[in-house]
Task: structure prediction
Amino acid sequence: MLGDTCFQSTRRVALPLSCCPTIRNNTLPSLLFPPRFFGFIVVCAFTLLNLYVGVIFSQFSKIRMMSETGSAFLTSDQNEWAELTKMVFRCALLSKKEIEIIVL
Result:
C-alpha cells in the first residue's frame, strides 16, 4: 500500500488512493469525454455554418429583390428617372378620335 498514493499538488501531501475518486478505477469520465467533446464541436460547427449561410441568403435575396425593381446599383436620382420612364411607357397612346374629343 505504500505505492498506492495520490499526490495532491496544492498542499504537497500524499493521500491514500481511496481519497482520490477521479483516479480510483473510475475510467467512465475519461471514456465519455471524447464523444462529448466531438459532439460539442459538431454542434458549434453547424451553428456557425447556419449563421453564415443565413446571412449569405439574406443578402442574396435582398440584392435580388432590389435588382428586380431595377434599383440594385442605381442612385436615388437614377432610380427616380427609371420609375418616371416606366410610368411614361405604361401610358397608352390616345387615338385620333380620342384627341379630337378632348380638344373639342
Remarks:
- The chain has three helices and two strands.
- The chain has one domain: 5-103.
